[in-house]
Design brief:
two-stranded parallel ribbon; mainly alpha; globular; three-stranded parallel sheet; about 45% helix
Length: about 210
């Protein structure tokens, strides 16, 4: 059986509209959903949001069994501001606990790109930070039975090849894996047959 989870911008909904939207999905055969990064942030900040989602799942007979970690500056594995990393990982660990309690078995997380593209921090600095980031989360992954799924994107700091370099030290660890994003991979300006003119201006910044 192929189990698909469906994505929606849940944070735009009131509680009443949340029920209505889930009903529309369910009426069309969709029963599994993604805890998006925005929804996950709300759940980290509010125990009431967690309780609400549990009630909704029970009432509507649906599941939130996939999750995407908070991402961007201040959340990514290679975030280079060392004094802020402990608090960042504490947040991710709490997020993993919440996600696992809903039945999520993978935790999709970004490597990071902003510091490479805009601040020009070299890969030789960022890669060890990303490796350390995975190490920081391993004990929680094992405890909660949830796999750290490192996602590739379209910048040099997080291409699929770079993700594999980051994961190489973990030697097929059962709680470390890849979230392979084919859309991100397709956007690579360096891919055969692609030119910068085919992409938004941001891609020129990346490469």
């Amino acid at each position: 059986e192929r189990k698909l989870s469906y994505y929606y911008n849940w944070t735009s909904l009131s509680n009443e509209d949340f029920y209505k939207t889930i009903r529309e999905f369910a009426d069309n055969g969709c029963r599994r959903f993604v805890i998006t990064q925005g929804l996950l942030k709300e759940m980290i900040q509010s125990e009431e949001k967690i309780k609400f989602l549990r009630r909704l799942c029970a009432d509507m007979e649906v599941e939130f069994t996939s999750v995407h970690a908070p991402f961007g500056t201040g959340y990514d594995l290679n975030y280079p501001h060392l004094e802020k990393r402990p608090a960042m990982f504490a947040l991710h660990k709490r997020a993993m606990e919440i996600a696992a309690s809903f039945g999520c078995r993978t935790y999709a997380i970004h490597v990071g790109a902003g510091e490479y593209c805009y601040d020009h921090v070299p890969l030789e600095v960022l890669r060890p930070l990303a490796i350390d980031g995975v190490e920081q989360l391993l004990a929680t992954a094992e405890k909660e039975n949830i796999i750290i799924a490192v996602e590739n994107s379209q910048e040099p700091s997080n291409t699929a090849a770079e993700v594999m370099k980051i994961l190489a030290p973990f030697n097929n660890h059962p709680y470390v894996g890849v979230c392979y994003d084919t859309g991100h991979a397709h956007m690579l300006a360096s891919a055969p047959g692609k030119t910068r003119e085919q992409f938004q201006a941001y891609m020129a910044t990346c490469w």
